[in-house]
Design brief:
It comes from Herbiconiux moechotypicola. This is MmyB-like transcription regulator ligand binding domain-containing protein. The chain has 89 residues and is mainly alpha-helical. The protein has one domain. It has 4 helices and 2 strands. It has a two-stranded antiparallel ribbon. β1 and β2 form a beta hairpin. It is globular and about 35 Å long.
Length: 89
């Protein structure tokens, strides 16, 4: 991943946890650090220092990804916990 030096890049799992990222991605946002959860960072963290417009777009994209994968992960407890956290926002 670190060999990708011209663009920010990161990989996430089905729970939206960042598995790996390159330096450019981590410079864009602390939420792209391995171990961070993209959803929790976008909705619950002060580390999400994007403009209000960019943050709204990013949140909408994350929610769309979660909705798309809901049927595949309907029996996954960790996935359902994440959805439950968002439902309380």
């Amino acid at each position: 991943m670190e060999s990708l030096t011209s663009h920010p890049a990161f990989v996430y799992d089905k729970h939206m946890n960042v598995v790996e990222s390159n330096q450019l991605a981590r410079e864009v946002a602390a939420g792209f650090t391995a171990g961070s959860n993209l959803v929790r960072t976008a909705f619950f963290s002060a580390a999400a220092h994007a403009s209000p417009e960019d943050l709204a777009i990013g949140r909408a994209q994350l929610v769309a990804l979660l909705r798309k994968s809901l049927l595949r992960n309907a029996e996954d407890g960790r996935y359902l916990d994440l959805i439950g956290e968002l439902a309380r926002v």
